[in-house]
Design a protein that fits this description.
Oligomer: single chain
CATH superfamily: NAD(P)-binding Rossmann-like Domain
Largest sheet: 7 strands, parallel
Structural class: alpha/beta
Number of strands: 7
Radius of gyration: 17 Å
Number of helices: 8
Strand order of the largest sheet: 3-2-1-4-5-6-7
CATH topology: Rossmann fold
CATH architecture: 3-Layer(aba) Sandwich
Strand content: 5-15%
Shape: globular
Helix content: 25-40%
Distance between the termini: 27 Å
Order of helices and strands: EHEHEHEHEHHEHHE
């Protein structure tokens, strides 16, 4: 994606539809696999579109079967399923709200029932709501954002843990906003900071069991959440403040998840990768 390629656009509701985006995000068409995840099963929340869809596609290319957990964008989820199955891997889609602990338990159980095992959990589902001031953020919005963005990660990790064995991996999606903040996304930025601490604490808890916990903190990435969050004028300028002068495509982030899920990262735990177009962060 080159500079000045985003036409003004807005979607009326979250999590947003990938099919409505222009240009279409690249979720990994040219990726060359090496069989790094052969025989493994991955559960990916928010796997219907954007970064989550790209992760599912690259995981499938590397040999993994995939369970796609998503809220209600059924068309995008079916596209993810088709892309995974086109790589010769099995895929199931599970619709529901990760802020509900019972749903998280059911999603994990269905995944294990379908595939027999699970080795990789990717916590990626999120929501964000732009506000000009903290005074505009209601208690209801604050709680909803936290329940989706961090409670859901906690619930999924807790439900998955009894099924994970030595060599398994949990990967959590944070954001550059955890390190730099965003004045229009105060509640969202707060949840992403919580994810960093959650990841490091959980890694400390599970490393002795041979389960690695790491995270990815993307910068501006072209996903449905962007036109579903911001007005047209903001979308038009999205990503131009990075040193690369553009937003990233989902596949440019998904390679980080492949690395952290595979044995290539066997000596890495409690860490974050930063695919963000060259923006400096303090980790």
């Amino acid at each position: 994606m080159s500079e000045n390629t985003l036409p003004p656009q807005h979607q009326p509701r979250q999590p947003g539809s990938q099919a409505m985006m222009e240009p279409q995000p690249d979720v990994g068409r040219g990726y060359r696999a090496a069989g790094k995840l052969l025989g493994r099963t991955a559960l990916v929340t928010g796997g219907d579109s954007g970064i989550g869809q790209a992760v599912c596609v690259l995981f499938a290319k590397e040999g993994a079967d995939v369970s796609v957990v998503y809220l209600d964008e059924h068309e995008d989820a079916e596209q993810t399923r088709r892309l995974v199955e086109a790589e010769g891997r099995r895929c199931i889609t599970i619709a529901g709200d990760v802020s509900d602990e019972q749903f998280c338990r059911e999603a994990v159980q269905r995944t294990v029932s379908e595939f027999g095992h699970i080795e990789i959990l990717v916590n990626n589902a999120a929501e964000q709501h732009a506000a000009q001031s903290i005074e505009e953020i209601s208690a209801e919005q604050l709680e909803r954002t936290f329940r989706t963005n961090i409670f859901g990660y906690f619930f999924m990790a807790k439900a998955t843990l009894p099924h994970l064995k030595e060599g398994a991996a949990i990967i959590n999606t944070s954001s550059i906003t955890a390190y730099q903040g965003n004045p229009m996304l105060i509640d969202y930025s707060s949840t992403k900071g919580a994810i960093v601490s959650f990841t490091r604490a959980l890694a400390n808890s599970l490393t002795e069991k041979g389960i690695r916990v790491n995270g990815v903190a993307p910068g501006p990435i072209w996903t449905p959440l962007i036109p579903a969050t911001f007005p047209e004028d903001k979308v038009k300028e999205f990503g131009k403040d990075t040193p690369m002068r553009r937003p990233g495509h989902p596949h440019e982030v998904a390679t980080c998840y492949v690395f952290l899920a595979s044995d290539d990262s066997s000596y890495i735990a409690g860490q974050f990768l930063h695919p963000n177009g060259g923006q400096p962060v303090e980790s």
